[in-house]
Amino acid sequence: MTALETTTVGSFPKPDYLLRARARASKGALKAAALRELEERATTEWLRFQEEVGLDVLVDGEQYRGDMATYFAENLDGMEVSGLVRSYGNRYYKKPVIVGELRRTRPISVEWFRFAQERTEKPVKGMITGPYTLMDWSFDEHYGSREEAALAFAGLLHKEARDLEAAGAQVIQVDEPALSARSDELPLVVKAVGLVTQGLDAKTVLHTCYGNYEDIYPYFNRLPVDQLDLEMSNSSLDLLDRFRRDPLKKEIAFGVVDVHSHVIEPRAQVMDRIEKALSLFDPQKLVIDPDCGLKTRTVDEAKAKLEVMVQAARAVKSEHGLA
Questions:
Q1: Domain coordinates in residue numbering, the chain
Q2: What is the mean pLDDT of each run of 10 residues along the chain (323 residues)?
Q3: pTM for this one?
Q4: Cα–Cα separations (whole angstroms), residue 313 to 271, 286, 323
Q5: In terms of CATH architecture, what is 5-65+110-132+144-319?
Q6: CA distance 291 to 174
Q7: For residue 56, what are the CA distances in angstroms to 203, 217, 313?
Q8: Which of 55, 105, 115, 190 is deepest in the core (most CB within 10 A)?
């Protein structure tokens, strides 16, 4: 890993032509092959942009996914998808329902990982929605136990992670936005994520966001991953004091732009956030990225935020002789 490596969390906004195509496809007015062609076009465009702006580790942008949980639910046996449920603000997702024993009959994300990795020489992350989040965001009509359901997901996702690694993924990210939903279940999060990452040679990352970090902090160093990816900017970097008192023993991906704001942060502000992170973390273990996925922003906003982020990281690297 290079000093102050830059990356992004996972999702990008879909261009207008793809949004229109997805709407038509949902009504049966566009064939799957035609939709796939446009998803590939959008994925390739986002890969080119990431290369042009200078990110070090890329993502495929999830142009083929609706919601992060629903996408996996749609590709697992034993699951159905219900109607729309509000997640936050005016954002909705289709709630997955566990209706039988969970089974994975084929790889879920590997084909899209290969598509992306074949189009760039830079590493592309493998992206998995975590077992705890899949359990927490689903209605369970089969297992009757939150732990049993989470561990069932974990076993299947371990196979997905192994297949991503076999396909060439050097970095595998497990997304657990529900991690802080119930602090009493943090031991279950550790156990379930450990099942997913067990035996992997790829670098493993756990991303979480918008929780009460102070309450869950004691578990950060117990999470069985190499790197934690944390939202920092939206919460005004209020976790820095805790880092000083109780150092993080892992690599950290440090969110320096707020994905829930339309405002494009000035470069000086992003540089200041990076400098504050550098005061606590070894630059070789510090990754610079946005707080979360950028799919809630417009295409122009997402691009502008990534541009200023990379420019700020380069400026700080230059000032510290890390370039």
A1: 5-65+110-132+144-319
A2: 93 98 96 98 98 98 93 96 67 83 97 98 98 96 97 98 98 95 93 98 94 84 96 87 92 96 97 96 97 96 98 97 86
A3: 0.94
A4: 7, 11, 10
A5: Alpha-Beta Barrel (3.20)
A6: 15
A7: 15, 28, 11
A8: 55
